[in-house]
Amino acid sequence: MMLLVVPVLAMLFGFVLGSRAAERIALLTLPLGLALAVAVAALVLDQGTPLSYDIGGWASPLGVALRVDGLSAVLLLTTALVITGVGLYARADFATPADVDEARTPLAFWTLLLGLWAALNAVFIGQDLFNLYVAIELLTFTAVPLVCLKGSAETLQAALRYLLFALLGSVLYLLGAALLYGAYGTLDIGQLAAAMRGSGLAAAEPAVEPAAIAAVVLMTAGLLAKTALVPLHLWLPPAHAGAPAAASAILSALVVKGSFYLIFRLWIDLMPVVYTQQIAQGLATLGAAAILLGGIMAIRQARLKMLIAYSTLAQLGYLFLIFPLLVSPVLVPTLADGSTPAAWTGGVLQLVSHAFAKASMFMGAGLIAIALGHDRIADLGGLSRLLPITLVAFALSGLSLMGLPPSGGFAAKWLLLRAAIETGQWWWTLVILFGGVLTGTYLYRVLAAASFSESDADLAAGPASRRQSEGVSEPLPKLATGASAELASAPPPEPASEVSPERASVQSPRSSSQLPGQTGQVQSAQRQPRLQRPVARSRELIVLALALISIALGLVPLTSFEILQIGRGGEAMAMLEPLAEPAGLSAFELPASGVTPVPSATGFLASVMEPLPGVAGSLPSAPESLPTVAGPSTSSVAPLPSAVGAQSSAMGSLP
């Protein structure tokens, strides 16, 4: 309950007391909210059961029920960490100037930040579909204004498009909830699940009521619009790229995950058997389209923030691959030895590691825009000397997005790969691998431009560089391509010290008239702003810290993720039982604990050397030198080559 009360009260007090007080209250709320999230997660892990609370003592359906299971606890903690980092980062951008009593933009940002935090917490702990509707609406109406804080025509247009898609999703969701209430007389997720099973929805050939089918279709479509899954993604790139860097980080890391979480709950907690395996394949197909389209579009972008926005579109696609992998009729050894399905752990790891990596990337892009006065990828030369910490953080976040060891993204994608092969759905492995290649391609563009660009050498020292920084125009050679002509016709960028972080991140080249008396000659747009460091080192360290968390998730032993099974066993997962029976598997119910027998994400480096198990086989055991979970073991690890073996043994011994 305090997870909702604290940010709401802080938001109200800040709004009433003004911008300066709102900033102070928000900064005081950050550690308090983080401490509450840590305490809740620790309590759930210690008790081994979900936490439930009925507001006012009224049980559902008369009252409002709140529930925190293992997944909710992880998402609450992730939200608190990301918002704490964003809040500390945003102090320099949204501080009230000392010479004014009140500032509208800082007041709006800090109150919206706190309201968004409360909305996300409500989404993650809500148990009633109508209350979840209220929470998702609060999330929308706090996220949309963050897009247009700058007030420019471009950001207003992006915010309006976002709002239209979000409202469409809200209407569809509410219609679906109304149909479910009319059919079953309750909107509590637990009671709805019990009612559906009682009416035969959990049978091998379920007798699904038409109203329930229509409700599921409407609610899923509405939430897909809010999640920006292809083809309902048109609002995401301009909204995430046009918002201030701090707002972009929250939108990409957290906001789109809220609606995805509700889709997941509808499928797993409420109606995992209403839709067949073919429908799950359809959702994953849309996810695969997002991976490919987002990656290709990111490669084509000329602006850094737009590239990161399309990267978000691609990374969201991986989350939808878990549906066919988790509800597959071939759940193989994880059912026999009591282990956690690989797709389950991999999907959550993908969600969490992407949140930290993408928040770090967007905030790093904001610092780059301040330092260089623009975010044009082709003109990032000199960045490796100007902002080395930021560039390192960007590279580390990129490692996680690509899925390279030892990052959390590697652990997530490896688990998804194993799940795809173990369940016989090999085609998803091609999507995952090709998506990683696309990710590496567009990230290499950024790192290469920042580290090896010709403009980097031009900035070292020289008459041309000095003349450019002083605003002296020089004739250009004949331009060969239309793209070069567009660059050549652009005016010189403003000095970094004069460009706000919001404006700098969305600057676009404009054509300018030719110089008098010089027909065919144009002003040079290749002039670089005078490089300086107008950003605090502390802001770079915040960006680096979030990137390191994304990497560190790959070093956490998988036994630590047993918290994800709390509240996921029992009735909800038992509803998957009919899906396993057609394949000849015995009925099952996932326990409250148990993990895949690999001691840590880095231990995957050893298991890579083993042959993958067959569909009806069992998972290979871990190396003898590493601790293993009790259970059947039919294979051992072959001796590794010296270099790989040394790395694997060193990493596998990590706690």
Looking at this protein, list some descriptive labels.
mainly alpha; NADH dehydrogenase (ubiquinone) activity; 28 helices; disordered C terminus; 655 residues; two-stranded antiparallel sheet
- Number of helical segments with 4 or more residues: 28
Number of strands: 2
Order of helices and strands: HHEEHHHHHHHHHHHHHHHHHHHHHHHHHH
- What kind of sheet is the major sheet? 2 strands, antiparallel
- Sheet with most strands: strand arrangement: 1-2
What ranges have pLDDT less than 50 throughout 5 or more consecutive residues?
200-207, 332-338, 454-529, 570-655
Instruction: Write down the Rg.
Output: 26 Å
Helix- and strand-based class? mainly alpha
Query: What is the average per-residue confidence, as pLDDT, rounded to a whole number?
Result: 76
Note the gap between the termini. 34 Å
Question: How would you sum up the global shape?
Answer: globular
Beta fraction: under 5%
Helix content: 55-70%
